[in-house]
Design a protein that fits this description.
With 275 residues, the protein is α/β, with parallel strands linked by helices. The protein contains 9 helices and 12 strands. The protein is 28% helix and 32% strand. The termini are far apart.
Length: 275
């Protein structure tokens, strides 16, 4: 008998993956946390039946949400990661020698438990001496830590449930206040094909708070539309001014000096709705 996992990506679109084995299944205080082993994408983490990451393609997302900002900031000594309980963002952040401390705030400890047990290629950075793990509300943490971080990474799930507040203008204002005078942040901001209103609202909100505001994109096959956006808000440093010659080797599979520049080249249909 064949077993398939299906995600309802929109009311009119589904994605299905053939399953070899269910490895982890827990109902936490916030959501259903599942790790399955799939034929096509390897091990896959889902939250409330929505794909979060897979072994086959996770490097694209995690390298973009971390390295674009970390390369843009010349001294990213103290970094905050909100969400990202799978550990992929942490793994990438600690590749940077200039990073001295990473505070990882994840509201659901079951996500980290699942990653440690069944996604070791992602969660390998959890044991780094640079990393402090805090199981708490990221919104509350940001409010309580003003002028603290050089960079904040908002590695959230979709804007429903515990992640909903991470897409509000009020939250971006507290992020601005939690950053040092030259700080910047990067957040995942959904699909340019299916979440245009959300992307436009985030872009406008961030643009009203941060002097520098950019959208950049990458390709993630299991996410709706396969084309995914990230938003950066920066107080001083512009990612478009980064000199490619100053980008050191990071042992990456997607991110590179050329990708750093190319990620900000947006197709006309995205530019038009951002206006």
């Amino acid at each position: 008998m064949e077993v398939w996992f299906t995600e309802d990506q929109t009311s009119n679109l589904k994605i299905s993956c053939k399953v070899k084995e269910v490895l982890y299944h827990r109902i936490s205080d916030f959501q259903k946390v599942v790790v399955i082993d799939t034929v096509e994408f390897g091990r896959m983490l889902t939250l409330d039946d929505v794909i979060q990451t897979t072994e086959k393609e996770e490097f694209v997302y995690h390298e973009l949400i971390t390295h674009v900002g970390l390369v843009t900031h010349p001294e990213p000594c103290r970094v905050l990661v909100i969400g990202g309980g799978d550990g992929g963002s942490i793994r990438e952040v600690i590749k940077h020698d200039k990073v001295q401390e990473v505070v990882h705030v994840e509201i659901d400890d079951k996500v980290m438990e699942a990653a440690k047990m069944f996604l070791p290629t992602l969660s390998s950075g959890f044991n780094s001496p640079k990393v402090e793990i805090r199981v708490e509300d990221g919104i509350k943490h940001v409010k309580e830590h003003k002028n603290t971080y050089d960079m904040i990474i908002i590695d959230s799930s979709d804007p429903v449930g515990p992640a909903k507040g991470l897409f509000s203008k009020e939250f971006y204002q507290t992020v601005f206040e939690a950053l040092k005078e030259d700080g910047l942040f990067v957040a995942q901001t959904e699909s340019p094909f299916f979440n245009q209103d959300l992307i436009k609202n985030v872009h406008d909100s961030v643009g009203n708070i941060f002097p520098i505001n950019h959208l950049f994109c990458g390709v993630i096959p299991t996410y709706p539309g396969g084309y995914w956006s990230f938003t950066m808000g920066s107080k001083i440093y512009d990612p478009l001014n980064v000199d490619n010659k100053n980008i050191s080797e990071l042992n990456t599979r997607w991110y590179s000096p050329d990708i750093h520049k190319a990620a900000f080249i947006l197709p006309p249909f995205v530019k038009n709705y951002l206006k």
